[in-house]
């Protein structure tokens, strides 16, 4: 993190990587914690790196006051050069030496939430990526790994709990009501994994004995009022420990593993060694305050941070360009964890569809916009801007393709080899790919490794065109797959990727056909994965009695855009019968998208009936289907988002996109009215609340049905369903049902919505995470007469609003600017003005959150006039501000380039 507000930002390049000139072997830190003046004594043992030419020691530090520097116990001269402390006359030779640095920082003034800060009277740290330098002078880079001993001293009544990484080895009283705790971390680590917490906290505790017999103490620390919301996080942690051991043979390597929740956090959570720090949003849950989505997110984030203990902490990144080494791999692992916890295969498919939906609505636009970058970026001005959906979600898809190419067992063998080779090291994405390939020498991955690694070096989403020709005489079907990828900033030409395409063939009446490539001796049942490596390749299938319907890219086997000229009839066949649930869902999305695009591209006013009988009938079939799960039905019956639709257009009129999608929704609501009634009535009662896939799916479908019934009622003026929604809202026994009912009223703009919102606020005035939902729902509400922006400005004056709290800022500002396109893109440009004001306001105290908001206008070049011109002006207004952070400057500069 750097809020360098002087001079042009320096660009860091991957090719400039050089090993550090010094190593730090041990660190002994002693903190005297005080919000206004915290004293940090840092005693290090260093030595020169023998393979690097002798040079001065340059330590990173930011917003620190230096009181003393001693080398081997004696005072020494140093200079401060920008954000570095420079020591030029150090002992010669390769003997280790001691360096002691005493500095002072001011946690209560730390609004960026990087380094040491105070949240609700409790001290927290956040060091990834470059926050440790805000605590003490250090070689703040991940390839410098040291052993840490940490002593914390603080007032005992205000800070009874003192935590850091590793094991507690000593604690006791000190004079003047103070006390201390001493922690030793048994594992070497890079400084970005350092953490401390000090405050009034309580813990849910559980002792477990792992598969391999190890005894461990698990703890979830929260504020005293939140104990009743910790059970799910603890259960998720226990499940994570068991899963990593069962699936990958990776045990917990610590006696004690702690999670601590804070309500002031820039991101989701952080994998500090043995002391994970979490945004409360990803820890706290009970049936009354959290939705099914919250429960699922907690499970996956707890898993994610826990899995980092091996993929990130035991083996870490050589430099920050390798971020996806830990993040892509760990997202892949948390996705697999959530899927493996599903008992039913259909629930696994639901999870896969949800993950792909995130990839396509967030990562594909990133890959097509001004911030496009490879999974392993080549340069950055501010590393915090590269914690992106590309590094995380596309990175996970790259790992998933490796697993597809070597098989599940082959991948597990590759992971084993990766740890055998690299445990305790700081390595690169190349090292990972090499280990997976080397463990599978006969695989396609090993054969194609240099080409496969283009997924790491080339940005942009590949497009795959599929064309099939049936030859009735030869009884054969030739499928031609071609790939291309548009230029991205700094990368004009792309070389072909290695693209695994899983596929099957169906007959016109939906039977799965045997697959036999021309040169095979026999046919195979079901799916097969072809590997596309050339710009264009043809595959001929034989022994086919009629033209097949191809089911391509099953399970979304590669992160590409598949272009295939399906007829409606073919898509209807896939929707009705594809044994691959992902493609079944995808067929429905394609049918809907096709209708949306037609209505958008038509001349004249938006039609009120974009949908036809065939589509509506197919949706009814799915909704009423006797075998399909509720969760799957809910996904199929949900139309593609406005963001996803917009991405398919060369030029976007956001108001028209919004109007067309609304018209589709209204038509689907009215045309299926009886079916929605049936769906609601048969799915609304679920007994005792349990956030499992079955219950979650049933509540999701009942919620969708209720929302649709309120939409339909808006047109007929009928008061029955809004009335039922209000009753349902009042009587709900869990947050999912309650919130779905509330949002049905808000989205249909029924008069009862006001009353319900007031009641909801009164019920949950002391629950910060629930109030976030309350704010977000209003900022994300449909806009009819430009009413949302004034409502958002008013919400910002609400006594519960606090822009300094990232969750609350996101609930109002991001919900409006990033998640409500129909209200944000106004012909009078007032939405963009609001955006520019908020980016600049946030940047003054929290550049990371500001830079995320800055990305809301990433796709401005695609907008039609008058939006496009107005958006450029708004971005230029931000760019013209002289004292911007590096974070925001990089985003707006790239947007205008
Ligand atoms: N490393 C964290 C994760 O993905 C994310 C994070 C990055 C949190 C930077 C805080 C700061 O699990
Ligand atoms: Zn992570």
TrEMBL record:
Residues 568-897 form the Peptidase M1 alanyl aminopeptidase C-terminal domain. Its cofactor is Zn(2+). Residues 96-193 form the Aminopeptidase N-like N-terminal domain. Its EC number is 3.4.11.2. Keywords: Aminopeptidase, Hydrolase, Metal-binding, Metalloprotease, Protease, Zinc. Residues 460-563 form the Peptidase M1 alanyl aminopeptidase Ig-like fold domain. It is an enzyme of class 3 (hydrolase). Residues 233-448 form the Peptidase M1 membrane alanine aminopeptidase domain. InterPro entries: Aminopeptidase_N-like_N, Aminopeptidase_N-like_N_sf, PepN_Ig-like_sf, Peptidase_M1, Peptidase_M1_dom, Peptidase_M1_pepN, Peptidase_M1_pepN_C, Peptidase_M1_pepN_C_sf. It catalyses: Release of an N-terminal amino acid, Xaa-|-Yaa- from a peptide, amide or arylamide. Xaa is preferably Ala, but may be most amino acids including Pro (slow action). When a terminal hydrophobic residue is followed by a prolyl residue, the two may be released as an intact Xaa-Pro dipeptide. Gene3D superfamilies: 2.60.40.1840, 3.30.2010.30, Neutral Protease Domain 2 (1.10.390.10), Peptidase M1, alanyl aminopeptidase, C-terminal domain (1.25.50.10), tricorn interacting facor f3 domain (2.60.40.1730). It comes from the Bacteria. One of its GO terms (molecular function) is alanyl aminopeptidase activity. Belongs to the peptidase M1 family. NCBIfam families: pepN_proteo. This is Aminopeptidase N. It comes from Hydrogenophaga laconesensis.
């Amino acid at each position: 993190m750097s809020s360098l507000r002087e001079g042009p930002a320096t660009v860091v390049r991957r090719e400039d990587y050089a090993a550090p000139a010094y190593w730090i072997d041990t660190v002994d830190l002693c903190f005297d914690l005080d919000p206004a003046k915290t004293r940090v004594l840092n005693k290090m043992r260093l030595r020169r790196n023998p393979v690097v030419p002798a040079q001065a020691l340059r330590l990173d530090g930011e917003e620190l006051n230096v009181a003393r520097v001693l080398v081997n116990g004696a005072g020494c001269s140093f200079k401060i050069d920008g954000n570095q402390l420079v020591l030029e006359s150090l002992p010669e030779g390769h003997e280790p030496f001691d360096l002691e640095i005493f500095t002072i920082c001011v946690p209560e003034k730390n609004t960026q939430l990087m380094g040491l800060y105070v949240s609700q009277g409790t001290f927290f740290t956040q060091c990834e990526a470059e926050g440790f330098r805000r605590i003490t002078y250090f070689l703040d880079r991940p390839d410098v790994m040291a052993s840490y001993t940490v002593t914390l001293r603080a007032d005992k009544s205000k800070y009874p709990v003192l935590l850091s990484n590793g094991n507690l080895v000593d604690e006791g009283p000190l004079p003047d009501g103070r006390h201390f705790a001493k922690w030793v971390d048994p594992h070497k680590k890079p400084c970005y994994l350092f953490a401390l917490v000090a405050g009034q906290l309580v813990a849910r505790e559980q002792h477990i004995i792992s598969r391999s017999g190890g005894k461990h103490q698990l703890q979830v620390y929260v504020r005293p009022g939140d104990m009743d919301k910790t059970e799910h996080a603890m259960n998720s942690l226990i499940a994570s420990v068991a899963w990593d051991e069962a699936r990958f043979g990776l045990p917990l390597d610590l006696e004690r593993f702690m999670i601590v929740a804070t309500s002031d956090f820039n991101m989701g959570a952080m994998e500090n060694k043995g002391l994970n720090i979490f945004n409360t949003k990803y820890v706290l849950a009970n049936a009354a305050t959290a939705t099914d989505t919250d429960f699922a997110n907690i499970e996956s984030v707890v898993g994610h941070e826990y899995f980092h203990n091996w993929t990130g902490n035991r083996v870490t990144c050589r430099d920050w360009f390798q971020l996806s080494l830990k993040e892509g791999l760990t997202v892949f692992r948390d996705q697999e964890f959530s899927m493996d916890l599903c008992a039913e295969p259909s629930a696994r498919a639901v999870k896969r569809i949800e993950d792909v939906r995130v990839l396509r609505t967030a990562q594909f636009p990133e890959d097509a916009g001004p911030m496009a970058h490879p999974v392993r970026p080549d340069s950055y001005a501010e590393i915090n801007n590269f914690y992106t959906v590309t590094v995380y979600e596309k990175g996970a898809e790259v790992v998933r393709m490796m697993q597809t190419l070597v098989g599940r067992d082959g991948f597990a063998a590759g992971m084993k080899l990766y740890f055998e080779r690299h445990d305790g090291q700081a390595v690169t994405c190349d090292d990972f790919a090499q280990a997976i390939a080397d463990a599978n020498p006969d695989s396609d991955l090993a054969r194609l490794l240099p080409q496969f690694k283009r997924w790491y070096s080339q940005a942009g989403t590949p497009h795959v065109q599929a064309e099939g020709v049936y030859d009735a005489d030869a009884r054969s079907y030739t499928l031609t797959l071609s790939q291309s990828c548009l230029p991205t900033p700094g990368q004009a030409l792309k070389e072909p990727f290695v693209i695994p395409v899983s596929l099957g063939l169906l007959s016109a009446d939906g039977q799965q056909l045997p697959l036999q490539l021309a040169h095979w001796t026999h046919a195979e049942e079901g799916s097969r994965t072809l590997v596309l490596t050339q710009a264009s390749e043809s595959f001929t299938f034989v022994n086919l009695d009629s033209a097949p319907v191809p089911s391509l890219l099953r399970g979304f086997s590669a992160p590409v855009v598949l272009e295939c000229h399906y007829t409606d009839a073919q898509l209807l066949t896939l929707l009705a019968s594809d044994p691959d649930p992902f493609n079944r869902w995808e067929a429905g999305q394609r049918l809907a998208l096709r209708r949306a695009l037609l209505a958008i591209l038509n001349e004249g006013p938006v039609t009120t009936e974009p949908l036809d009988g065939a589509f509506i009938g197919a949706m009814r079939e799915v909704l009423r289907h006797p075998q399909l799960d509720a969760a799957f039905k809910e996904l199929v019956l949900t139309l593609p988002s406005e963001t996803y639709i917009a991405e398919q257009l060369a030029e976007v009129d956001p108001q028209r996109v919004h109007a067309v999608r609304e018209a589709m929704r209204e038509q689907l609501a009215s045309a299926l009215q009886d079916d929605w009634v049936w769906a609601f009535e048969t799915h609304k009662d679920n007994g005792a609340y349990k956030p499992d896939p079955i219950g979650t799916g049933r509540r999701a479908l009942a919620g969708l049905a209720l929302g649709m019934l309120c939409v339909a009622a808006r047109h007929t003026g009928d008061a029955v369903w809004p009335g039922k929604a209000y009753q349902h809202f009042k009587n709900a026994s869990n947050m999912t049902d309650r919130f779905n009912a509330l949002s049905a009223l808000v989205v249909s703009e029924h008069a009862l919505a006001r009353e319900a919102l007031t009641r909801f606020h009164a019920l949950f005035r002391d629950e910060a995470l629930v109030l976030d939902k309350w704010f977000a729902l209003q900022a994300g509400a449909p806009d009819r007469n430009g009413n949302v922006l004034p409502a958002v400005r008013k919400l910002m004056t609400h006594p519960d609003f606090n822009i300094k709290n990232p969750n609350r800022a996101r609930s109002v500002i991001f919900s409006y600017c990033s998640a409500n396109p129909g209200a944000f893109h106004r012909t009078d440009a007032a939405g963009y003005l609001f955006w520019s004001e908020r980016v600049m306001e946030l940047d003054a105290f929290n550049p990371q959150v500001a830079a995320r908001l800055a990305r809301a206008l990433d796709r401005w070049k695609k907008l039609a006039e008058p939006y496009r011109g107005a958006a450029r002006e708004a971005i230029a207004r931000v760019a013209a501000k002289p004292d911007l952070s590096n974070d925001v400057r990089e985003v707006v500069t790239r947007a205008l380039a």
